[in-house]
Structure formats: structure tokens, C-alpha cells
Amino acid sequence: MRYREMKYSFRNDYSEMCHPEIMTALIEAKNEQNVGYGLDIHTDNAKLLIREKLECENCDIHFVTGGTQANVSVISYALRAFEAVLACESGHINVHETGAIEATGHKVYTVKGRNGKLYPSDITKSLKYHQDEHMVKIGMVYISQSTEIGTVYTYDELRALYNCCKENNLYLYIDGARLSSGLAASDVHFNMLKDLCDVMYIGGTKIGMLSGEGIVIFNDKLKPYFRYHIKNKGAMLAKGYVVGIQFEAAFKDDLYFKMGQHENELARFLSSELKQLGIPMLSESPTNQIFPIFNKDDVNELAKLYEFEIWEEVENQIAIRFVTSWFTTKEKCIELINDIKNLIQ
Amino acid sequence: MRYREMKYSFRNDYSEMCHPEIMTALIEAKNEQNVGYGLDIHTDNAKLLIREKLECENCDIHFVTGGTQANVSVISYALRAFEAVLACESGHINVHETGAIEATGHKVYTVKGRNGKLYPSDITKSLKYHQDEHMVKIGMVYISQSTEIGTVYTYDELRALYNCCKENNLYLYIDGARLSSGLAASDVHFNMLKDLCDVMYIGGTKIGMLSGEGIVIFNDKLKPYFRYHIKNKGAMLAKGYVVGIQFEAAFKDDLYFKMGQHENELARFLSSELKQLGIPMLSESPTNQIFPIFNKDDVNELAKLYEFEIWEEVENQIAIRFVTSWFTTKEKCIELINDIKNLIQ
Amino acid sequence: MRYREMKYSFRNDYSEMCHPEIMTALIEAKNEQNVGYGLDIHTDNAKLLIREKLECENCDIHFVTGGTQANVSVISYALRAFEAVLACESGHINVHETGAIEATGHKVYTVKGRNGKLYPSDITKSLKYHQDEHMVKIGMVYISQSTEIGTVYTYDELRALYNCCKENNLYLYIDGARLSSGLAASDVHFNMLKDLCDVMYIGGTKIGMLSGEGIVIFNDKLKPYFRYHIKNKGAMLAKGYVVGIQFEAAFKDDLYFKMGQHENELARFLSSELKQLGIPMLSESPTNQIFPIFNKDDVNELAKLYEFEIWEEVENQIAIRFVTSWFTTKEKCIELINDIKNLIQ
Amino acid sequence: MRYREMKYSFRNDYSEMCHPEIMTALIEAKNEQNVGYGLDIHTDNAKLLIREKLECENCDIHFVTGGTQANVSVISYALRAFEAVLACESGHINVHETGAIEATGHKVYTVKGRNGKLYPSDITKSLKYHQDEHMVKIGMVYISQSTEIGTVYTYDELRALYNCCKENNLYLYIDGARLSSGLAASDVHFNMLKDLCDVMYIGGTKIGMLSGEGIVIFNDKLKPYFRYHIKNKGAMLAKGYVVGIQFEAAFKDDLYFKMGQHENELARFLSSELKQLGIPMLSESPTNQIFPIFNKDDVNELAKLYEFEIWEEVENQIAIRFVTSWFTTKEKCIELINDIKNLIQ
């Protein structure tokens, strides 16, 4: 059997198993017997805790194991056959889900947006364009908090977007794959979300859990028989309590929110140090993904020391992506900064 | 927060987290960084180990997180739009997946079968019935080993079935949700499977893992771009190494096979003790599911002491289901027998 | 170029173009310009006429070009992803649409039924069987009037069935591919249908039109945005007026109903003459399909003279199908009877 | 019953029933009996005639009743679940089919193109962008001849595009809704098409038939069981001979090609007269759609006299669309020109 030496990785936030407190919770349950399919006491507790933090008793919560599953389950439930979901061109459902939404029969209609974000004018323009039965009907708006390029919606932006959706009879869905990081970097608090969208998911895979995402449904119209739909989409887990236990642990003492704060702090530290070194950034990201720009030789050298993602070419230079996670330490960030210093001097 | 007292459960084989050796493997990896999406070294090792046990170097292996996901991924990949999969009426894809196969566009064409099993005559009759383009074309045959009612295919039965499939240009697919138990109860050995089907999955969720199923593709026609298909079906796990680590542990020292043997032994023990008490059985099951028949009052009393499934009414009596797992102990089986003795005397 | 001599055909009711009055209506419109997509005046008139005959002002009517299109459009509109349609095993959507319903994502759940018909007990048993989210949810009941084997529902049967559907929150859908023939043979009148189902289609292809089926929606829940859905299913015709003109002609002077009466009269004539010759029938069909049973040699001889369908083997004999249409004449029926007389004597 | 006065229409090429020769062919067959589902002699003859004109014996031909049906049938047959079709943003399948392609599970991936046309660089860029299994795989390229905005591919353009497709293992599919007009305006001849694409459809609805499109499959890989697929998509017509008769008539004496020439001549006449009046055009279209630009008042006045389509706003003016068809006469074009002259003077 082979074992691979791996460089320290800033590639993404799903390279490490799970936060120690979550692992502990799993270990503690190792001799339990639990009912299957998410009908267990841990899942119940996780739902109670999330509802408490949301200050919302009436939302429905369902756990699935991955972001694409969450997106597929929610979007295909909400839309009728002839309806499309509106998203940014950079939206995860448009780019990085191998047509999973279309596989359930729905067009992902995209607009350019700005900084990875949609604005009310994007919605109204899209609606105006789709005038009759020869074109799809827009039924839902999909956004991410934080976005695929690390930006966040402010409260005012989200409020305006949701108002626009309500005026136009559209569902607003928030993909919260990195919700913890998004919340820690914006003036949108967790308990405000119930008034800012119809449905969202609380990402676990990218926020310190083995796997698991919690779909939260605020709008009553999206609630009936949702468990049937999850099962129909292959997203119902027999050992649902494995996800329930993790969300129970993550929401018992604000661990979920602390992980996002930790990520953001380290990313901001990295970002400010890099700027001091004169390294330009592709974008202003206040969250756990940052996009410094290096020349090609430096990228090649850096790649001998660290794992990271090549993002895109920028005028003969290369933007790369560093991602911090619950696992990332300040020490490793300092090492990285020092290695970069040596490299560029 | 509420905590629920739970009676000891013989309800199913997914009530308990995972075998201690598998938990240990997960804990050991807690400080690792691994590449995502199943491209990590643990997943590689798991594949190597499975190929070794199969004595088959050329099969493709892909891990997903649930049985329905595995079935959906395999069946919808293999079939063209107008093709159907043939299954027993009792087949899991027909009864208990909430139309997940149909949701990908394919009819599940069913025949009655015998003892939960299909026979070559079922196939040839089905083919004869589907004569032209006004009817679906049968493209794949779906069976389970062990079956949904605990029976197993013998080597000769499986050989005959696969020969029939090959003669008729059909794929044969084995749902191995309980493969370990099925193998331990039949003369079909793991390394024979490469010659007895085109594709199968090795069940982990019901055999001592947190979750995870290993799809094994023998037929070259079913291999190209399968990773795209898994992603398209929402079944690709970002933290794929979490499943990889578990399969690595399960196949390092025959743990996977031992768990099935353990289950079957306890089920046979239960079964023979119950027969000695004069309790009739719904069927002869050599695997980890058994179906004793009690009168209704006894079922009600027993339900105060244990968790189990009500299976079906049988002439004013009730067949219930006991399932054993890696977690079940002989002590608990003896307790159960004693409680039943007290009950019926 | 080759031309084929064809024997006189009793094979089906779609072997001949269209009734002369319908052809005349088409020819009269040959120099018109009409708006596309069914928004023309002829289509409007056809809808008015149908609503008048139905004595129902509030139903929505949409024309498509084939029965499978109508079935696909209606069923996939009415059902949510995890819902199934209940049908007889012999139902057209189950047997003869090459999985078109499943291709839109829905299971066709079947029961045996009696004489090609469903009864309330079939519904209640099916509902009882589907208990939780691991199984599909029955959302709609599909029946045909007349049925695939020529039988018809009486008013009382249909009333009981629809009541049962309403009590159980199910849609009832009538496939009226041969509605004209079905109505002419039962005590169900056209204007009763509004109170006996939620949606139906009025078959044109098998009742004297070039092609075209009129979907009639009584239940308000099935109305919104239905045109979008038809387009999404590829069933919206650019030259919708071609179908509109035909339905206008068929409903102007009861032609639609007369064609069914004509068919049934000739089928009954055939049927009674054959019985007088001592020829047994597979079933009692009061509509335009009859199923006499002959020995194999006679079938072979008859096949030299006429086109007809081989239906099924019945104890070493063969049931064949004769179908009458608007085109069939009494003279040809007498010829057929005489040829059969000569054959069997 | 109401009857509507209609202004003379230049709105589109499907406002009129069918060419007199096609109507005659239909009338001549009115007393025939024909086999159903396109297995009749007329359909056979139509196929023979088309193959002769294509100088291609080995292509498969299938008739369906509408363009969306043809597109859905071909594209969903050719692509695997995770594959997308590449099209221009202006492509009919992207804009005007209400998500019908996505409804069969496939993403329509779009690029801007130029003048409604795709170029090899569009393909290679798209392929470069789609790198791994997290993104859809491009499997087919969709183009229209003529395009949605009236332009045409030259032989060299089409040759380059097809070569690019072959080098990259992609299918090239030509939507020929207006093929006759496209051919009459380009140096691509009908008999060249067999070497310039894998599959195409010959449009009938927009070229003088009641309805009907002829799918022509050149690539052997796209042939097996295609009839099953058509039926599965609800696109198989019981009275297939109704379409067969029309294509037989259209291809017997080059009528199909003459109709396109007629359309283009009148459109060119209109176009050159309008230019002489100093009216600007949105684009240079050599086919039967032209796009003159008027000020808003003139458009309103013209709309009192003629039916036409509002296309788009162009700097406070409005581009409208005139479409000519087999039905359009030179007299009516002259009338239109005169009315415009009066209007703008």
C-alpha cells in the first residue's frame, strides 16, 4: 500500500475531516442505537438548536450529505417543469455541478451579476426578457452567501433582493455552503435569515463536519412532503443520525459560528500581510477565500511548497486561491507568508 | 434538550454507527489533509484492496454515500432513455426508493419472481413480451444479493442468470446493500463476482460503516466518464476520503467479510432457537434478516421490550422482522429468546 | 417509386386520413392566414363549441397532436417529482408508450383491475400500501373511456371512482383516445364528464381527424401556465389552427359523436353476426374493438384477405382484433362476415 | 361563433396551411388505408426521394410533427446524462423552447457567437473551459441553417465547424426549421449536407407543409433504436402517413427547394426596395426574414395595416421582422412597399 506525502494545503476547506468537538460527539455515540432516516433524537436536537439560533420555531429542517444534493433537492422541489432558476454566471449550480440541476429538468438561466452577486435589477431585467410561454418562466432566484468568489451580501443588499423576489412572486434560495464564513464577514446575522429568504442550506461539509448540509425551509409552500422529495432524489441517508450528531455538536455552543470567524480572521491576516508585500489581489474578499496574483515563476515555486488552486490568468500573471478552514493555524499562515517573502525578494 | 430511552433494537442493520475498527481508522486520520472528491490516497488504497480480493485488476471502483444513490447512478448510466430495468416486484428500486429510478427517466419493469429472486425464464418472458418500439426495451436486470427478504442466489443460479443476460445483450447489476451477509450465506465467493455480473455495489451503510457504498464496474462499456455521471446525480462527495478510509479499513483484514459472517451466525442462532420454540417462519432466510410469525398480542408485548419491524399480516397472525448487525451480540440474542419464551408460555 | 397493394384493413381506427367533413373544413381554410400556436379564431371556435357541448364555461382546453403527448403533458403537470400515477396493468401509459411517462420522472404504479377497468377498492388498496416517504405517493388515477380492451365505465362506476379520488385527494384523469366510441356505448354523456373527472382528453386521431387531441381541464388547480408546460414537453404546434379547424368541424354538428355511434353500430353488427356463426369472443366489448377467437389455420387464411391485429393466444386458439372506424362501411362488414362463413364451413 | 378580420400577415412562415401541391397530395389519399406509425408506403417513398436528393443511401430518416420535438428527440438521444449541447445564445433551443431540452436533463451551454452563427474558436474555447467532471461535458454542437436571425453558414464555415467537431469528438446537429430558405441563400447544397453534419432535420412546418419535420441521421452511432426514442419522447405520430404524404409531395419535383427560393426572392425584393427608401436594416439577411428599422410612430401606423413581429428596440427606434413564405406574393410585397412609402413621406 502506498502513502502519499502531502504538502500543507490551502487548496480548500474540505481537505480535513472535522473539528475535534464534532469528532468527539461522534465517538461518544459509538455504542448507541438510533432510529434511521433522520428520525433520531440527535437530529431532533440539532433541529431544535438551529431553530433557537434562528429564533424561528416554524421552519422545517432536513439534513442531506452534500451541497449538490441540497441544491438539487430544493430547486427541483420548488420549480414546476417549465420553470428556471436565475443565478449568477459564476453560481455553483451553473458552473460546478455537472448539470445536476438540468438533470432534474430545469434551466439555470444566468446573468453576469457583479462581484459574484445578483442585484434586483438583474431580476427585473430577466423577468422582462421572459415574456410568454415560448420561454422558460423564472421561478426561483439562487444566490450564495458567501459567494463562489468570496464576497458577501450585506443586509441591505439581501433585503432589497428578497423584496424584489416577493414583489415578483419568486422564491429566493441561499446556498450556504460557506454560510458560517459569510455570516462572520457581513452584517447579516443568522437570526435575520428567516426574513431574508424562502429557503437556504447551512453548509457543514465546508465548515468543519465530515459531511452534511442542513436545508432550512421558511416558506410554508415549500414544506409539504419534502422528505418524499429528498428520498426521490437519492439524498435521504439511512444513518441520518451521523449528520444529526454533527449538527447537534456544531450548534450546541456556537461552534458553527466560531469556525467561520476563525477562518475569516486567518484569511484577513493572510490578505493584509500579502498586501503589505505589494501583492495585488483579484478581488476584495472578506471571507475565507482570497485570490492573490503572482507571476508564473513564483506560482511554480510556491506550488513546490503548498497545495492551492490556480484560479485564472490575469494579464500574464496568475491569480491563485488560498482557502482557510477550521484546521488552518496562524503558525501555518506565518510560514506561508515567510515563504512568499523569500520567494518574491 | 430531550433524550430518548430506546429499547434494544433488532429493527435493522443501520441503527448503529460503525464497527470499532472503522471508527479507529477515522480517528487516526483526524489530523490529515487529503485531496477531495475521492482522489485521495485512502480511496486509492481501498480500491487496491478491493481489486485484490476480487482478483480483478481491471474493474473501476467509485464510492458514493447511499444505496439509492448507487442504484440511481448505475442504472441511469447504463440505460438509454427508452430502456427499462427488469426487477422483482419486491426489488428495492421498485418498492422503497420513492420513484428515484423513474425520476431519472426509466421504467422499472417488474415480474413476480420466486423467493425474492429472478430466474432466466423471467428474463426471457419479459423480453418476449416487449416486442417493438411501442414498448420499453429491457436494457438491464437488477437483482440483490442478499435479497430484500433475506434469500440468496447460489452460484448456479447467478451463473444461469448472467448467461441469460449475456445471450440477450442485457446488463446484470447486483445490488449488494447486504453483500457481506449474502456472500457468507451462499456458495458465491467475492472473487467470483467479476464473472457473474457487469456491475455491482458493495454495501457499507448496512455493513458496519458510517455510510458508503462501493460501485464496482466490470464491464468496460459502463466505465467511461462515470465520475461525471456520479457528480451529475449529486452523488460525488467532497470529502470522499471519509468513505475511502472506511473501505480501506474494512478490506485490509477481511473485516468486511467477518461482519457478514457474524450477522448470519447470530441470525441463524435466533432462527433455530425460535423454531425449537415452535414459532413458524415466513421464509427460509440464511442471512441476517429473519421473519418469525407471532400472534398479535405477542407482537404487542414484544414491542414493549424490543424494536423490530412489522412485516406483514399472515392469516390473522403477524410476521415481524429481526435483523442482526455487526453490533448484535449473542447475549442480546439469548435475552431476546428468553423474553420470547416467557411471552409465549 | 413503389406502391403497395393493401388488403382491406380492420387493424385499427387510425388507418384512414379523416372524415370528409373535416377534410372539407381544412380545404376551405387553405387561403387563410392564421395566428400561430393555437391562438387563432378556429381554435377559439372549437373551444367554444366543446364548452357548449360540455355545458361548462370554465374549463380550459388545449390541443396537442397525439395521445402520448396529451398523457405526458397532463400527468407530468399534475404530479410532483415523488408522485406516481395509478393505472390498470393494461393501461396505455403502462404498456404502449415506451416509458414516456417515466421519461418525465414518474412511476406508473399498476394494479390488475377487472375488464380493463379500475375500481375504488383498487385505489384504496394502493393508497394503503404506500405508507411513507420511502415509497412513491399516488397523486393521480388514470383511466381510459373506452378502455384499451373495448370496455366502458358506466355512470355509476365513474361516479364511484371519482368520489373515491376526491375523498383521497387524488386527481382523476380520463384518457379519451376513443372517447366518442366510449360515450356512444355507455350511459355517461359528454356533458356529465365535467363532474366525473379533473382532466381528460378528447381523442381526435382515432376519431376521424388527421391528428389532434383536445385536453380539457376542469380542476382549477391544473390550469395555471399549462401552455408553458405543453411547450416544455414539445407538444405545442406552430400551426395550431390545423387542429383547431378539425375540432371546429367535428363539434359544429355533433359529427364527433356520430362517428363513435357509427363505429359502435358496425362493431356490434360484426359481433352479433360472428356469435351467430358460433365464434366465441374474448370479451364483451360494446365499442369499436371486438376480439373474436379463431383457430390458427383460420387466422392464417383470414390474414390473406384482411388486415387485423393478432391479440393473444387463448388455449391453442387465437384471439384477433377487429376495429371499426368512421371509414368502415356496412358493405365491408358483410363481405368480412361472408368471407368468414366460407372459411369456417 | 366569432370570425376575426385579419390584416395581411408578414408575421411568420407558419401562418398559412400548406402549399397547394401538398394539399392536393393529401386530398388524393383521402380514401386510402395506410399502416400507422410511419411504416406506410408514402413515408417510404418520401425517404427514398430525400435520400436520392441527398445522394446518400445510408442515412436514416424519421418524421415528427414539430421543431421542438425534433430537437428534443435528437439531442436527448445523442447525449449522455452529464453532457451538454453547445449553442449560440440566440439559438432556438436556448431561447424559445421553454426549457424543453433541459426538461430531458441536458444543459444548453451557450456562447455569444457572431451574427447568429458559431465558429470553431467558440467550440475550442468552450471545450477548454470544461476541464473536469465538476463541469458538464460538451457532447454536441447545435446550429441552425438558416439561423434564427436570417443569416446562413457558407460551405467553408460549415466545413470548418464540422471538422472542428470531428477533431473533438463532438456531434454536429443542424436545425433545419428553415433549411429550404437557408440552402437557397448559401453555397451549401442539399447533397453536401451528408458530409457536413452528423444529424439534421428538414423543416416542413415553416416550409409549406401542414406540419412535419424530417430528421436525417448520417452518423451510424445515432441510428440504433431511434424509433423507440421518438416514441419515448411522445413524438411518434399514429397517422404518420399524413406527414409522409407531404414530404413525398415536397420532394417529388423539387417543390421543397422551390419554396425556399420563392421566399428568399421576395424577401430580397422587399429588402432592396426598403433600402432604396433609405430604411436601415438590423442585419444583412439573405433569407426569408428581414429586419427593417422604423421610428415608433411609423411602426404603429404600419401595424394598422399589416401583421408583423416587433423584434427589438434600436436606439429609440424599433426593428421589426417581415417574414416571407410560400404563400407570399410579389403583389402583396409591392403593396407593402407602397404603404411604407406613403407612411414615411
Task: Give a quick precis of the structure.
Four copies of one chain form a homotetramer. The first copy, chain A, is of the alpha/beta class. Chain A contains 13 helices and 13 strands.
Key traits:
homotetramer; 345 residues; alpha/beta; Aspartate Aminotransferase, domain 1; Aspartate Aminotransferase, domain 2; 7-stranded mixed sheet; 4-stranded antiparallel sheet; 13 strands; globular; PyrdxlP-dep_Trfase_major (chains A, B, C, D); lyase activity (chains A, B, C, D); PyrdxlP-dep_Trfase (chains A, B, C, D); Aminotransferase class V-fold PLP-dependent enzyme (chains A, B, C, D)
Q: Name the structural class of chain A.
A: alpha/beta
- Order of helices and strands of chain A, N to C? EHHEHEHHEHEHEHEEHHHEEHEEEH
CATH superfamily of the largest domain in chain A: Type I PLP-dependent aspartate aminotransferase-like (Major domain)
At the first level of CATH, the class of the largest domain in chain A is Alpha Beta
Q: What is the CATH topology assignment of the largest domain in chain A?
A: Aspartate Aminotransferase, domain 2
* Straight-line N-to-C gap of chain A: 41 Å
Q: What is the count of structural domains of chain A?
A: 2
Oligomer: homotetramer
- The amount of beta strand of chain A, in percent, is 15-25%
Low-confidence blocks of residues of chain A: none
